Amino acid sequence: MRKAKSIALGVALALGATVASGVMAATTLENVMEKGRLQCGVTTGLPGFSQPDEKGNWTGIDVDTCRAMAAAIFGDPKAVDFTPLTAKERFTALQSGEIDVLSRNTTWTLTRDVSLGLNFAGVNYYDGQGFLVSKDIGVNDAAELDGATVCIQAGTTTELNLADYFRAKSMEFKPIVFDTSEQTVQGFAAGRCDVLTSDRSQLAALRSKLADPSSAKILPNTISKEPLGPVVRQGDDQWFNIVKWVLSVQINAEELGVTSSNADDMLKSDNPSIQRLLGTDGDMGAKLGLPADFGYKVVSLVGNYGEIYDRNVGPDTPLGLDRGINALWNDGGILYAPPVR
Amino acid sequence: MKKQAINARTYGVKPWYDPRVRSLVYQTLAIALVFWGGWVLVENTLSNMASRGISTGFGFLDETAGFGIIMHLVPYDATMSYGRTFWVGLANTLLVSCMGVIAATVLGFIIGVARLSSNWLIAKLALVYIEVIRNIPLLLQIFFWYFAVLSNLPSPRQSADLGSALFINNRGLYLPQPVPQEGFGLFIAGVVLAVFAVVWVAKWARKRQLATGERFPMVKVALAILVTVPFVAYVIAGDPLGWDVPALKGFNFKGGITVIPELAALWIALSLYTASFIAEIVRSGILSVSKGQTEAANALGLPNRLTLRLVVIPQSLRVIIPPLTSQYLNLVKNSSLATAIGYPDLVAVFMGTTLNQTGQAVEVVAMTMAVYLTISLLISLLMNLYNRAVAIKER
């Protein structure tokens, strides 16, 4: 009889479990507020985008996207915990709820947006795929790469673009697929491959990791469009909007000339756009479920988009990347954020 | 049990007090519960994935893969489907596993026997080998062979060559590929004929030894037949084999057979590592055969080689086979470390790139797990059959 009872208990437990798992969880914002920290998925180390220093402090454009969110939510850009992820792990980590937002130089594509249960909240860097070659092999254009061995990172859009490019030009190639970008550099440095392919912004960073950076060069060809941006889970529009609008606030701030150093003065500005941006007028914060001054916190604590760009990947950094198409729309680029109103 | 049941029925006991009925009911319930539990898990997963907007189903297997794979034993290019990448990865996993099992077994047996050698130097060398190799993590050994050894080979333009047909560089080992031409059938016929001849001679020699006790130099004769007959056939057919010799073109060697360094590094590391465990298993097996057996064989005047082959090893196999099976299973599963150095095995290709491009983690992981389970169960089955064949026959 005792046996029968324990079976009944087992049935009840399993049933209970099914019922419980069907209940909707709290919203992401509620969860984050409760934890008091934002969990942000980043790379395992990519200079300029997300890279820890020797003290474990993370820096980079993708890192600042998360810091801006923490500033908007908590008024504290340090209230972020970073989860380093390989390209292969990133989407699963987001889907499973291990991280709240994925900010890991991830390319926005239709398949990823539609079939993974994820949403891309915007673009924080417009990139394109390029090639890094050793100067020894005497190649000046990607069209001369027939038969080359190519080092590449697993689970990236570059893996597909590469095959497309070579197929379209009816050229052959041999892919050597590694898990992390460090390994691709290692393979390239060891001479396992003739070419290293990745997003152009990364190539500059990866080249700087070579023992002799001047022994390699980046070919002029750009073979794909790689809009990189933060990603959230589908089904939580409030959270999606927060990520989207924190990004827009940074770009609008640059357009309106609001920087981290003049944000305090700008609080007294009588420009209505700046007033709405910094929260001295209107209730933009409340509409998003954020404090009224979230825009002020973002800009004063983390900076506008231009500041973030310049300190992480700009001409004065080791990466030395010009703004290019990542300049504002009224400055020759394609950055155009919808207005805060 | 049976008696009880009869008693129960005879004495008109109620069915719910009948132990046979009760055990049947409990077992049915238990099985039903397991199935129901499994169904709930699947159902829950599916509905949760649907509510989160994640695609499900196996339709992705027919979609175009669109990425390249460096090494494929089955025909493959980027225009083929994700389903095909599964077979490519599986074939590469099986290749390195088979090569590893063979090399590890041969090496393990030699080292295991050497470990027991009466020659002090050989025994100690075997001991050092075992203790060094089995105490270093396998992943480190794979990295060692890949990054420390094979990456330091010369670049393609400075390749080391043997008779300008065989080339070694840091992109791999390039071998000439035999291309059969007209008349090659005769050579094949010669090989088949030689094999049949050897089998026939072996049967005859065994029969004669049983009848007269006279021994026949079987190994030498077999070798002679196996070399001579196909060679004669080859000459008669007029050199029916062409060679596709690799040549340096552009960035790399083209033509011939390429053994990529990823495969070589993985194979070497897996074989050496597993061999150190097999050596210990072989040693324990040999030591399990009582010394009296060896002494009796020596007393009969059998030389050491024959004592080992005819008396010791057959008896030690009973002890060796079960743990050896575990080592084979370990080797197959360890081959998934391939992903660390970019060898395109099932985990790297299918659970890596394919999973990532399609995002269908549940399906892909389930398929991959099923494959490893199937391979492992097959190995277990074969080894158990072999074990039954060599086990002590109680008569």
UniProtKB/TrEMBL annotation, chain A:
Keyword Transport: yes
Residues annotated as signal peptide: 1-25
GO biological process: amino acid transport
Domain Solute-binding protein family 3/N-terminal: 37-281
SUPFAM superfamilies with a match to the protein in the record: Periplasmic binding protein-like II
Keyword hit for Oxidoreductase: no
Keywords for the protein's UniProt record, in alphabetical order: Signal, Transport
Family indicated by similarity: Belongs to the bacterial solute-binding protein 3 family.
Protein name: Amino acid ABC transporter substrate-binding protein
Protein's organism: Marinobacter salinexigens
TrEMBL record, chain B:
PROSITE patterns: ABC_TM1
SUPFAM superfamilies: MetI-like (SSF161098)
Bilayer-crossing regions: 24-42, 54-74, 86-114, 126-148, 184-205, 217-237, 257-282, 337-355, 361-386
UniProt keyword terms in alphabetical order: Amino-acid transport, Cell membrane, Membrane, Transmembrane, Transmembrane helix, Transport
Domain ABC transmembrane type-1 stretches: 90-383
One GO molecular-function entry: transmembrane transporter activity
Membrane topology: Multi-pass membrane protein
GO biological process, alphabetically ordered: amino acid transport
Cellular compartments annotated: Cell inner membrane; Cell membrane
Domain of life from the UniProt record: Bacteria
InterPro entries named among the record's database cross-references: AA_ABC_transptr_permease_3TM, ArtM/GltK/GlnP/TcyL/YhdX-like, MetI-like, MetI-like_sf
NCBIfam families: HEQRo_perm_3TM
UniProt protein name: Amino acid ABC transporter permease
Protein's organism: Marinobacter salinexigens
